[in-house]
Amino acid sequence: MLRPVPAAAGSLTPRFGVNYTPRIGWFHSWLDLAPDAVAEDLAAVASLGVDHVRIFPLWPLLQPNRTLIRPRALEDVRTVVDAAAAVGLDVVVDALQGHLSSFDFVPSWLSSWHRRNMFTDPEVVSATAELVRALAAQLADAPNLLGLTIGNEVNQFSASNHPDPDPLSTDQARVWTATMLDAARAGSPSGMHTVANYDAAWFMDDHAFTPDQSAQLGDATVVHSWIFDGTGQRYGARSYEVAHRTEYYLELARAFSPAPQRPLWLQEVGAPRSILEESDVPWFVRSTVENSLQCPELWGITWWCSHDVSRELSDFPPLEHTLGLFDEHGRIKGAGEAFRDAISAAREAAPPAPRGRAIELPVGPQPLLHRSAAAPGGSVFEEWMRASRAGDRPTLQVVREHAHDAVAGDTRTGGAVATRAEV
Q1: Do the beta carbons of residue 152 and residue 196 sit within 8 Å?
Q2: Per-residue b/e over 242-272, b at no fewer than 16 CB within 10 Å?
Q3: How remote is the C-alpha of 328 from its chain's centroid?
Q4: pLDDT tens digit string along 299-349?
Q5: Fold of 5-346
Q6: Sequence ranges of the domains in the chain
Q7: Rounded mean pLDDT, 23-29
Q8: What is the pTM of this model?
Q9: Where do runs of H (alpha helix) occur along 47-191?
C-alpha cells in the first residue's frame, strides 16, 4: 500500500508525516484515551500539510499478561486511527512499545521474577507475534492504515551497551524480525509493514540486528537519524555534516538494498536542542528536508515529533521537552512553521539528479564487522562527506569481503562481492 502524494507538476513527491506524541498525558494517555483531545491534536498536525502520522500504543497496556490481549486497548488504537482519517491522515501503527524517549515499556511478564529473553524465548516470541497479528487484524479494514512498524527501536534491548540486554545471535535477530513481520502480514495482508531499528544496527560492530536485515526484511528500509549520535558533538551544530546527515544515512541504507527501487523511509528525524540552539532549528529543518529529497527511492519523511512533552512530567532528558513542532499548549513553534514551509517547497521541487561516484564500504564476515567505519567520524563517513562537499553527489557501495556473506541468494564463491552497482 505505497501511496505517494501527487506533486503539483504531476511527478511523485515523497510523503511527509509526523510522529504523534499526545499533548495531554504524553503516551500515558493510552491509559484513559480522550478522543476529543486526540482529534484536536491531529487537526493541528494535519494543518502542517502532512499526510500521515505514526502512533505508539503501549505494549504493557495492550498485553499486560502473556496470554491476555485486551480488546478495549485494541479498540482504542482503532479509535485513534479513525480520528486520523477524519482529518485526512493515514496512519502507521507501531507495535511493541518498547522504548520511547528514554523510558522502557516492557510488560511485567518479561521482567524481574519473570525475566525472559524477549527475542529467543519460544513462549515469549509466540505471544508477541500473536499481539502483532491481533493488532494488525483490528486495523486491517481501516482505509487509512498504511501498515505496522515492528517496535520503536526494540533492537536497543539487545545492544551490548544496554543496562540489561537480551542477547541473541545475528541469525536469531533475523528470525525474530521475520516472525513479527509475518504476524503483521497475517493480520493485515495489504499493509506496508516495516521494522524500526535504531542506528546501532547500522553502526555498532557487535550488534545482532544488521543493515542487511533492515534492508531485506519488510516492505521498506527504515532509518532513524539523530545528530546527537556524535555528528553534532564532533562537527558542530551548523556543520556541513549535520546538514547532510540524513542524506548520508539514506544513501547508506540504499547501498544495502537488495532491489534498486526498494523504498527508503526516514521514519524519525528531529531537532535536538542538546546540539542546536533554538535559532538553528529552522535552518536544520529546511536543510534536512532539502538534502533528504536528493536521495532516490525516498518514500517519506516522518518528523519527531508533534508536541513537546509537558514539563509537568518528570525525569525526561531535557531535550524531550523541546522536540515538538507544537508546544505543550498546542501552539505552533518555529520548527513547525519551518517543516510546514519545507513540505510546501518540496511539492514544487525537481526530482533528484543522479548520484555520483560510489564510496566503498567494506563489510566483513557475519556478524557484520566494520560497521563503525560508516558511523560519524568513521573512515567511510568522512570520505563521503568530503566527496559531497566537493560536489560529487556521492553514493555508497557495499563490498563483501567473503562471498558467503553476500546478500541472500548469492551463491558465488571467492573474492570480494559488491552488492549493488555504482549509481
Answers
A1: yes
A2: bbbbbbbbbbbbbbbbeeeebbbbbbbbbbb
A3: 23
A4: 999 999 999 999 999 999 999 999 999 999 999 999 999 999 999 999 999
A5: TIM Barrel (3.20.20)
A6: 5-346, 358-418
A7: 97
A8: 0.92
A9: 59-62, 71-86, 122-139, 170-187
